[in-house]
Design goal:
single chain, 83 residues, mainly alpha, 3 helices, 78% helix
Length: 83
């Protein structure tokens, strides 16, 4: 796990905690708007960091026969168009 992803997870958790605090203060009758702003900003920034730090998954072996047949068919059609 990269440092960027860890920072993103930390910011995401802080943001969610701040949002819970905001919703608790709304239920109490005196909303703290600063908690909403900090919570939303941290949650969005954390989500961006977590998602951008992901590595793409390795391609699976599913449908390899269909892919190879499709590639062969595409190669044949290319050969026909080139001649």
């Amino acid at each position: 796990m990269s440092l960027k992803s860890r920072i993103g997870q930390f910011l995401l958790s802080i943001g969610l905690i701040a949002l819970v605090v905001f919703f608790a203060t709304v239920q109490g009758g005196r909303p703290v708007m600063l908690a909403l702003l900090i919570g939303a900003a941290c949650a969005i920034l954390g989500l961006v960091l977590v998602v951008s730090g992901r590595e793409p998954p390795e391609p699976s072996g599913r449908f390899r026969l269909l892919r190879s047949a499709r590639d062969k068919l595409a190669d044949k059609s290319e050969d026909k168009q080139n001649t």
